[in-house]
Amino acid sequence: MSWDHSEPRDGFVAPPVPPMPTAPPTAPPTAPATAPADGRRAAAVALLNLCGLGLGYALVRRWGLMAACWVATAVLLVVALPADPDGVSGGVLGTYLVLLGIAAVHGAIVGLRTRLVWPAKAWLAAALGLVLLAVPAGGAFLYGDARDEATEQMLLDRLERADGLVRAAGKQSFSSGEADYRRALTVYGDLRDDHPGSRAAARVPDRLKTYYTTVGSPYARQNYCDAIVPLKYLRTVPSTMGEKELGALARWPDDRLATSLYECGSQSLTGGAVDWTTHYGELLSDFPQSEQAAEVGPAVDTAVDKAVKEVGGDEPCAAVARLESLVSQVTGLKGDRAGLAEALDKNADRAERGADSGAYACGVDQYRDGSFAEAVTTMNDFVRDNGDHKMRARAKKIAIAAEIAQTVPAAGKRLPTTASGGGISVTVKNDSPDDITVLYTGPVTGSFTLKACGSCTSYSLAGTVGLGFEPCSDSGKNYPQRTIRLPAGTTYFVHKSRNGLGKSPASDTAKLSAGYIYTECAYTTSFGY
């Protein structure tokens, strides 16, 4: 049996055939579709990630990873900027490079089978990645320049601080500022040696000129004595900085130091100070062929002339002391290297002769001032040292009168002359167990000695002031005696033991008149009797 499908049967309606269901529409994709592996695409993503901005992840729509790349780069910039001489620490830079490498490797893995959003051609993306590598390379180059500039600024700041030390030290004495000068010099040397190509090092030569003029400023102000020590210091700078590098500055202090030594020595010589020989000695030793050294001879000659002339002035003793000092000082100068040895020897001899001759004027001045003990010493020295001097005879008389005046001050009111003799006979006897020296002064002055009286003794001091004391009155004794002739007037006698210790001299004042014969008794007193 068969069915006829063309006609429906009576009373039966075939159910409608339901339409075929259609597939629901697909949502737009959130990421590029997976694609066959492509090495050029992987390389492009890796190269784009190497720029540090995660652009490779952007082309494959890995937004979170791209953001991570931005964060890593931002952290690096925060740490690295602004640039400083030390740059970024090795740990930070190493970490960033590791992250960058991971991003490149991971990007290559993702891009190997992931289609790019743009551009369509992988080689174009790779080319773009190569171009964008210029970003980190350029950044590194610019950062290096910034770091170099930061280093330059640091060195310039260091130079400025050293300059400040020099300026501050220049406002003080050299001894107070020397430490700052030395610190500044160390900085200049370090800049030149450790950073020779820097702008700061290029400025060091000019700074050294300022350094020298500042240290040597006392010389510019003509404070020659104050300039000596700093100029000596500057002569040591070449040992630190190098003579070749300093150029003309290495010899800059020499002439100034020679001038300062001469001027300071001349000031001391003129003023009577004793340190002039130190300055002149250094000048003759260190700069023997200088013009300043040649002036030493005339300067010493002038000083000797002045002292010789001052012997005849109001302070002859000071002039003599000055000449005596000059003798030893000039003798101590070593003028051989400067060709001044002969001239200095002549000056020393002339000063010695002037001192010897001036001792007479000094002794007279001491006598007139009542300094009798000093006058005795001065005149005795003069007599001893000047055997042929025309004033030697009177110097002996003044020494005698000064010795008498120490016991009888009235005897020193007049300066004795060289007169001798007289019309009045005076016999002096020795009532002493010692040899005695008899000194007398008045119209005439002289001295003589008497032998000891063998049977005589010293008198006690108390016995000589008692009533009835009459020395030389024992007719049974043979007193040694001597008769001299004196003019009328007051004559002062002093007689003293020549060998008796602890015995004081005795004195007598005799007013002599014509027509009389006088007897003078010499004796000694002892505190022990």
Topology diagram in text:
Blueprint: H1 39-50, H2 55-59, H3 63-80, H4 90-112, H5 122-132, H6 134-170, H7 174-194, H8 199-215, H9 217-220, H10 224-234, H11 238-241, H12 243-246, H13 252-271, H14 276-286, H15 291-294, H16 296-310, H17 316-332, H18 341-368, H19 372-385, H20 392-407, E1 424-430, E2 436-441, E3 446-450, E4 459-460, H21 461-464, E5 481-486, E6 489-497, E7 503-504, E8 506-512, E9 517-522, E10 525-526
Parallel strand pairs: 1-9, 4-10
Antiparallel strand pairs: 1-5, 2-3, 2-6, 6-8, 7-10
Helix pairs in contact: 1-4, 1-5, 3-4, 6-7, 6-8, 7-8, 10-13, 13-14, 13-16, 16-17, 16-18, 17-18, 18-19, 18-20, 19-20
Radius of gyration of CA atoms, rounded to a whole number: 58 Å
What amount of the residues lies in strands? 5-15%
In whole angstroms, how far apart are the ends? Answer: 202 Å
Shape: rod-shaped
Helix/strand/pairing category: alpha+beta
